[in-house]
Known about the structure:
This protein is mainly alpha-helical. Helices cover 51% and strands 10% of the residues. It has helices at residues 22-46, 55-62, 69-86, 97-107, 110-123, 151-154, 171-174, 178-189, 192-197, and strands spanning 128-134, 140-146, 158-164. The two termini are 29 Å apart. It binds manganese (III) ion (MN3).
Amino acid sequence: MAFELPPLPYSHGALAERGMCQETMELHHDKHHQAYVTALNGFVEKNPALAGKSLDEIIQMSNGKADMAPVFNNAGQHWNHILFWQNMSPQGGAMPGALESKITSDFGSVQAFKDAFKTAAVGQFGSGWAWLVLGTDGKLKVTKTPNGSNPLATGEGRALLGCDVWEHSYYLDFRNRRPDYVSNWLDKIANYEFAASQMG
Ligand code: MN3
């Protein structure tokens, strides 16, 4: 059973007024994410060891193996983008009380969380991701990963929010201004309702 590109949970233009235009979404979802899925399916077809494995299993099997780096990168990016589309909303930016309380408890304040997330996102040299993770110690933390890696691969905990800081995610809307993209994403686009639902 081949991996498939999931449909967006909103229209391509749904985030345009919030700082992510329709063309960004068309390229990012329909072209970039599709390319990761197509490449991953190609690797699975050629490698019997990958046949029938789940996406999580493929990420864990290929993690840290130099000869499987292309498999890991494409599987990781498929996993990351499945989460990313759910991590955004036309009603983004509003934080439910339970998550706000947890963030205030673990970071000191919502602003301190946003500052830490922005520092991670801006400080990721080159392509990668910034994450809000529920750690194995039960505390929220902010992490970053390069390229297609993610908290599943690093074992740092459960990813609640992931922000794509590859240039394809922001260049049409913010050009080279990654800090402005991340601030806008946290304030107007991030789906904190979804993040809260993942705390479990
Ligand atoms: Mn991307």
